[in-house]
Amino acid sequence: MPIILAIETSAELASAALLHGERLFSREASGVMNHSQTILPMVQALLAEAGLTLNQCSAIGFGIGPGSFTGVRTACGIAQGLAFGADLPVVPVITLQAMAEACREQSGAANVLAVMDARMGEVYWAQYRYRDGWQEIIGPTLSAPGDVLPEGRVQACGNGFSAYADAFAAAPFASSALAHMVPHAAQVARLASRTFAQGGACPAADAQPLYLRNNVALTIVERLAKAAAVA
């Protein structure tokens, strides 16, 4: 079994996990402004708890996004730095798929809609179906909450539902949504382990964040227009 170290910093929760066979070790900390300072101590604590060194890991998984612009850059940069230092490959994992994995673990659902708060009156979302592995039904998308349109019946999850509760009030899939879920390194580790076993790792130099938004700031006029649209 591969030994996977995983890092996830795309949302307000920073987390790290170490998957060693069936044993999963994890750490987490809130506060998006502190992600770059908290991840490395978490990694050191996990390795110490498992009695391993970084060089004994098989690969480093990380959440590539979508998510916070700074957060996904942080995860990518730290994963690359650790991988270069230990001569390890990396395994990129889409944050929305990690949320779908957590949703399936919690609810048993096989058809999952993951919706993540993107700020600025928008959400990141995607739909996945599990059949001996995850299938992407609708790929990662950035839109207004009212434009989230999954196919068929879904189990919804993600902090987008708590961030924009009013905008989702009429959506039939919102009433049963797991509304406070955010990506976590535990699921990143499990998905990365499967991808690694299938030969899906890549060199650290090839790691790239997934951005769905080009602009990370809006003008006052744009902010007012988005607020009016959400209302």
Outline:
With 231 residues, the protein is an alpha/beta fold. 32% of the residues lie in helices and 27% in strands. The strands form 2 sheets. Strands 3-2-1-4-5 form a 5-stranded mixed beta sheet, sandwiched between helices.
Structure write-up:
The protein has a five-stranded mixed beta sheet, sandwiched between helices. Strands 8-7-6-9 form a four-stranded mixed beta sheet. Strand 6 and strand 7 form a beta hairpin. About 3% of the residues have low confidence. It has a domain of 116 residues: 2-Layer Sandwich (Nucleotidyltransferase, domain 5), CATH 3.30.420. It contains six helices and nine strands; from the N terminus they run βββαβαβαββββααα.
List keywords for this structure.
6 helices, 231 residues, five-stranded mixed sheet, Nucleotidyltransferase, domain 5, alpha/beta, four-stranded mixed sheet
Using the 3D structure, state the CATH architecture of the domain at 3-94 and 183-206. 2-Layer Sandwich
Tally of helical runs: 6
Q: Could you state the CATH homologous superfamily of the domain at 3-94 and 183-206?
A: ATPase, nucleotide binding domain
The pLDDT mean sits at 92
Largest sheet: 5 strands, mixed
DSSP, total strands: 9
Low-confidence stretches: 216-223
What is the C-alpha radius of gyration, as a whole number of Å? Answer: 17 Å
Strand order of the largest sheet: 3-2-1-4-5
**The CATH class of the domain at 3-94 and 183-206:** Alpha Beta
What is the terminal-to-terminal distance? Answer: 50 Å
SSE pattern, N- to C-terminal: EEEHEHEHEEEEHHH
Beta-strand percent range: 25-35%
The helix content is 25-40%
